[in-house]
């Protein structure tokens, strides 16, 4: 018995611990990495999106999206955390969004009344009460920049000529995209909001869905359309395939004329997120 115990003890002490399993890193298509690379021609730096945040659903992509809305319309689905730019032929360009509490406080139709590049941000009274140490210094407003929580661009929604206080904007927290967040309206990856800002003009119709109208039907345009993940090769469209080929001509006339010059909007103010 003693010999047996010794033998077992020898086995247990000589056994090597299993090697740690390295975390599998997703393989991301080169065109997706380029799309979400650092942006160097802006007044402030826009960092590349961490590849770990480029999940398949998080990459902008052409999807099937039958809709009664005309091409050029923006449809926001805060419950599915997607924003759609309606295109012709039952398609839409889909962007993933992060949704804050304010993102559920407005439903219905609105209009993009103003667009801003590197917008100014002012915390709401509630934000000042909730976190005076962090937000108090910006009570009079924070100039646009890479530390500004509105990110690189903002779209301001109005209804019947009045500000809804509903915003579609960039972020300084790209890891929060696709998630429910504590504050704000609709936030996007800076690379995506720059793309959207370029594509839609002021006057664009926006439809914000309520819980009963939340879309469940939108699907990638092809099995590989979400191709941010995988071996980098795709037999179907890449996530932006359709923009290069369908192009802005597939949008409404107003949307096709939407490429407006980018200006640094230091004076434009905002009420919260």
Structure description:
The chain has a single domain, classed as Beta Barrel (L,D-transpeptidase catalytic domain-like). It has helices at residues 2-14, 30-35, 125-130, 132-135, 190-199, 253-256; strands spanning 61-64, 74-77, 82-86, 91-96, 98-99, 108-117, 153-159, 162-169, 186-187, 205-208, 219-220. With 273 residues, it is α+β, with helices and mostly antiparallel strands.
Quick recap of the structure?
By secondary structure, this protein is of the alpha+beta class. The chain is built from 6 helices and 11 strands. The protein has an 11-stranded mixed β-sheet with strand order 5-9-8-7-6-10-2-3-4-1-11, with helices on one face.
The class by helix and strand makeup works out as: alpha+beta
Q: How would you describe the oligomerization state of the chains in this entry?
A: single chain
Beta fraction of the residues?
A: 15-25%
CATH architecture annotation: Beta Barrel
Gross morphology: globular
> What's the total count of β strands?
11
State the low-pLDDT regions, or none. 2-17, 222-268
Number of helices, where a helix is a run of at least 4 consecutive DSSP H or I residues: 6
Q: Gap between N and C termini, in Å? A: 73 Å
Name of the top-level CATH class: Mainly Beta
Give, in order, the helices and strands: HHEEEEEEHHEEEHEEH
Largest sheet: 11 strands, mixed
How large is the radius of gyration? 23 Å
Q: What's the name of the CATH homologous superfamily?
A: L,D-transpeptidase catalytic domain-like
How many structural domains in the coordinates? 1
Strand order of the largest sheet: 5-9-8-7-6-10-2-3-4-1-11
């Amino acid at each position: 018995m003693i010999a047996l115990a010794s033998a077992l003890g020898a086995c247990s002490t000589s056994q090597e611990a299993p090697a740690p399993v390295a975390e599998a890193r997703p393989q991301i298509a080169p065109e997706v990495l380029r799309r979400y690379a650092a942006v160097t021609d802006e007044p402030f730096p826009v960092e590349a999106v961490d590849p770990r945040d480029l999940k398949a659903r998080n990459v902008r992509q052409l999807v099937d999206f039958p809709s009664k809305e005309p091409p050029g319309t923006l449809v926001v689905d805060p419950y599915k955390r997607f924003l759609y730019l309606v295109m012709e032929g039952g398609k839409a360009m889909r962007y993933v969004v992060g949704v804050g509490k304010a993102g559920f406080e407005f439903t219905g139709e609105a209009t993009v009344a103003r667009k801003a590049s590197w917008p100014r941000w002012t915390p709401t009274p509630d934000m000042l009460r909730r976190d005076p140490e962090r937000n108090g210094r910006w009570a009079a407003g924070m100039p646009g920049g890479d530390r500004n929580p509105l990110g690189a661009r903002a779209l301001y929604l109005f209804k019947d000529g009045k500000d809804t206080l509903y915003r579609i904007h960039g972020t300084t927290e790209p890891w929060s995209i696709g998630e429910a967040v504590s504050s704000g309206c609709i936030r996007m990856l800076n690379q995506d909001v720059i793309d959207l800002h370029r594509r839609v003009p002021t006057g664009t119709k926006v439809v914000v869905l309520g819980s009963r109208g939340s879309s469940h039907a939108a699907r990638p345009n092809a099995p590989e359309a979400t191709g941010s993940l995988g071996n980098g090769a795709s037999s179907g469209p890449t996530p932006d395939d359709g923009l290069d080929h369908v192009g802005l001509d597939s949008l409404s006339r107003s949307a096709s004329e939407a490429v407006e010059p980018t200006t640094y909007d230091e004076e434009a103010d905002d009420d919260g997120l």
